Amino acid sequence: MCRRVESLASTNSLWSTGSGEIRAYLDASDLAEWIRLKESGVSKKYSQELARRTMDAMHELSNERLGKIKRQRSKDGLSYKETRLVLKADVELPGEVTNSDTNAAPATDQVTGG
What we know:
By secondary structure, the protein is of the alpha+beta class. The protein is built from 4 helices and 4 strands, in the order αββααββα.
């Protein structure tokens, strides 16, 4: 796992660590709740709208690096669909530094003297 994704899925982050094919994910409900905590006076309905718009923009600007899925979720006896942004394990991020990159010896060109 790269350092950037590890920091994305840290304890102070909205992103959660995935498993298998998914490195990290973000649920719309978590983003809406975070918005309400950070911005006083924002209604639940408006925070949900802001979360939807933000996730739509993130998906569009990611150039297909983030996937967007709808999943069935049950809470308090009610069932509803929720949007989730996912970062798949096989997706390369620009500027990503992987553990294998940092552990490898630095590459140097052969120097020939004259």
